[in-house]
Every structure is written in structure tokens, then in C-alpha cells.
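Reviewers of the previous submission asked for a worked example of the structure-prediction workflow described in the proposal, so we include one complete record here. The input consisted solely of the amino acid sequence. No template or homolog information was supplied to the procedure at any stage.
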Amino acid sequence: MIDPRFVYLAIVLAGLGGWIYIRDTLRGVTSPNRVTWSLWGLEGVLAFGVEVQQHVGLASWMTLMLGLVPFAVVAASFRNSHAVWKIGTFDIVCGSISLAGLIFWAFVNEPTFALVSFVCADQAAGLPTLRKSWLAPSSESARPSCSDV
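From that input alone, the workflow returned the following C-alpha cells.
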């Protein structure tokens, strides 16, 4: 079994990857999709709350980091007017599906269905960024982001 203290290394690596993406956002090199990154932040913070309730321990801090970094990316996108990606109908539909999945996750009492709902919500949240990256690859940074670490 891996030493649980490796979570500190994971937190540092996620923070470093997040900082690189945030820096590129502040410079206007990257234009994050606010729908995707806001939902990823929300998912991370919600999962952290559940892990704290379940007494997961040290590993839950990595989950918190995976929620805080996306929120920092969204905040950085408001600091640079060139780091804004126009939100369209596709983004709103995917965001709504993701939120519906998170609401279902919050209320279902069956762990397997809840997990499937959470994963589907996460995937729906990522579709706008996947589409944006396909249509406008120059709107993304070639450097690693927090999801790559």
C-alpha cells in the first residue's frame, strides 16, 4: 500500500500545474471555459465535504485542492479580458446536465448510482472545454493543467 503522506506531493504537483494554467490565464494565453472550470471546482469542494463527513482523512485534502484550483482559474479569467471564452448554448446545456447530475448525486441514497451520477456530471462539465479545445486549440495552453497532474 502506498504511504498516505504521498498526498502532500500530489497537492504540490496539483498546485504547480494549477499555477501554470492560472499564470497563462492571467497572461491571456489561455481562455478557460468558465462553465467547465466552475463546475469542476464545485464538484471538488462537494466531494471534499463528503470525504470529511466520511472521515477519509489526509487524502481528502487532495480532493479539496482539486476543487480550489479550478475556482482560482475562474477567478483568474476575470482578471484578464483576453482570457474570456464566450459561453454559448452548448456550454449552458452541458452545465445544466452536469448540475442535474450533481443534484441527483446529492439526493440518491444508493452509492453506486450516486458515483455514476457524479462521474457523468464531471464528464458533462468537461464537454464545453473539450469542444472549445477542438474548435480553437490556440485558446488552450500546451502546458499541463491541474487535471494533468
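The chain has one domain: 6-148. We consider this example representative of the routine output the project will generate in years two and three.
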